Each structure stands twice: as C-alpha cells, then as structure tokens.
Amino acid sequence: MNALSGWLTPVGEEVPPEAVLDAMARAYKGRPAETDSKSRPETGLWAAVTDAPGGLCGQDEPWAAIVGEHHWSDPALADMKGAQGAAAALRRAYLRFGP
Asked: Which domain holds residue 24?
C-alpha cells in the first residue's frame, strides 16, 4: 500500500504543519518502508511508499511527489530518475513540458 497526501490552505490561514503531517501518518494504515514530507504553514506534502518505488522532491518549487513504477522515454529524464529519483524527474518534466 502506498499513500500520497497533501494540503493547501488559503492565504492567511496557517495550519501547524507538524500537526497535519502527524495526522496523515496516524491515518495511514499501512507500514511504509519509507516516508518523506515537506511542509510550510500554508501547504504540505506527505508520501509513504510500501510496495512501489516513489518519493518526494521538495528542494525547490514546485514540489513533486510520485508513487509507482515509472519509465521515462526522454533519456535526460531517465538519467535523472536514476541519479536523483523519480520525483526529481517528474519535477523536471513538469518544468520542461508543463502540466
């Protein structure tokens, strides 16, 4: 079982990120092999991976998260997936090609 959760709040309505991330982790019924999260008061992202590859890329905006097996036909994205992970490749693809 894998999970991907997140939130956005309206500007000016701050949510304590630690409380929201903790609630997401408690609500998840699986036993993830890996978890990762990124947050600030107005937004957050949480990923849990049990039986599929995936991850979170949150070093720069936009953040990206991905769960499951992914194959990139673009050689540069395939290389990035191998070196930095699938979420980093997804982020790069979004920046290059758009939504």
From this structure: 3-97
